[in-house]
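Notes to self, Protein kinase:
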Amino acid sequence: MSLCINPQCTEPNHPGNDGSRFCQSCGSDLVLRERYRVMRLISDKSGFGQVYEAYERNVPKILKALKEIHSGHSKAVALFQREAVVLSQLRHPGVPAIEPDGYFQFLPRGSESPLHCIIMEKIDGPNLREWMRQQGNHGISEAQARRWMRQLTEVLHLVHERNYFHRDIKPENIMLRSNGQLVLVDFGAVREMTATYLAQLGGSEGVTRISSAGYTPPEQERGQAVPQSDFYALGWTFIYLLTGKQPTDPDIYNPHDNSFRWRQFAPQVSEPFADFIDRLIAPKASDRPSSTREILEDLAAIAPPSNLPRIQALAARPAESPSSPRTTQLQPAQTQTQHTPFRWKYPWLWSSATALLIGLAGWGGWRAYQQFSGGIVAVQPLVSSATLTGHTGFINHAVFTPDGQRLITCGADHQIILWDVATGQPLRTLKGHSSYVNAVVLSGNGQTLASGGADNQILIWDLPSGTIRHTLVGHTNAVNALAIASDGTLISGSADGTVRTWNLTTGQPIHTLEEHDGFINAIAVSPDARTIVSGGTDITLMVWDLRSGTQRRTLSGFTGVINAIAFTPDGVEVLAGGTDRTIYRWNLETGEQGKPLTGSAGFINTLAVRGDGRTLLSSDAEGQLTLWDLVTGKPTHIFAGEGAPLDHAVVSPDWRTIATGKGFSTVRLWQLPDDVF
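result:
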């Protein structure tokens, strides 16, 4: 049913609207900007706007429309427009994606005043208030709180770096993706940190007040919010997550003496971590941490429980101006070099030096100095050789056929597309999933395809005919990762925390592996079809015997979520990487951990080992692709894409062609230079 968003429409959900271009009640256009059709109202309780679900073809989106009552107020309009500006500057999985032209105006039929609108990504998951209700309002563990605290603080770090602060952090404004990533939403209250604003803090005149009961700090209630106001709201958000109780709950808050007693409702929390939370909610802003970096450093300094890996502080990174691109754009004649910087002892001196470096050389110049273990490596520009168009939503995964002549992609449009790599033309479109398709994998002979998605199902396809052989049901949440062993066993990993094995030929389930305490993001199977390794949001790798389904060992030491796993061709070594920007390696025969590969510019998204067993490919969230020598443990080549990031790279069997596109609706093909091997 198409919904009319004209505030004056007497029947916005008129039965005749379905399939019509114009509202059958008021005559307003139902297809906004020739692209978006609104389907239902999600909420009208947002402070400034109403939230709708809209579709661009069959891709779900979120449409926010400023309430008509606020359209005549310039400050409300400015706040609403600022949300689109800020979101367009923040490229991070912890922030909803928005197009550069995400803000637009819509003029209803017969109206003289336009509606102010923002269109953005729809997050495939609940907010934390909804999630807690689903869990029975039971408090989360300290380990999970630490992981989530780090995720949210890194998002806030990005926001504060651009001289903004959020001002409305609370469980309803934090969403949980199916892959375990927390997403900070509702930037309508965001405020820019400018000299003019800071000068206004001496008085409340001209300062907009944003308040959410229990989560808003005292200074913000008086109209004098500062960046540390976000930390107060962050602290109370985690008290709610740890106790299941709201800040205004009389069990926690005593209004007579303005005291808080939350610790007794969170017995699972260690005293040092509780002290850390109390510092976040200090009544005076000056008693709270001074910056996001200090929060991460304090979090790292707390001795963790014996079963919790220590969380390292965020590596020092220079602040970007709001106009700075997240991906470095290189010209063909340019070359960048990367050196290993020495460790700065004093953070304030580091910040000053960083600011001076940026002022002299710009962000691109800074990118020349990343942490690598010795040597100098040029960052080479890579130019896309082809662009493949056909998807109508974000692409989630891709895989080459064994001969390298075809590419298979899947995405948020519920489709799987088979492409001819030489011509860039789509050969076949497979439709069968009822929601996002998150992963695809091919059998060794290239004849059988498996796909998994947010509909919790796995489909087994006969690729030559494009028909579905089997529908596998068993997972209770989105399927995030797939692998096929050389003996024909299918392995799946899901946001339900389980790894399952299946008979690829019959579609029958074999084993369910249930030791993980979080979403599964990545799985890999050894070349001899004996060992499965899985990892995800619980920050551990688990090693399983494929045939018996029993756990062999747990590999720990990570300080971030695991996104990618790869075996060496001999099956002796396994490598894994994720959000702590480090690639770890283990010898599975001895259980010994090798020297990690450090210095990646961003979160590790993909890993692949070449057939020679010596070359590792990694791609990261900063858009760089790195080739590593596994013997020396050092990078040999680093590439940055021109016009598009190399952040989720898939390599062809001959290691000549790279495919990217995750998070975009188009696929890019890239050719590695002939001299890299």
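- Residues 161 and 319 are 5 Å apart (CA to CA).
- The chain has three domains: 15-121, 128-301, 377-665.
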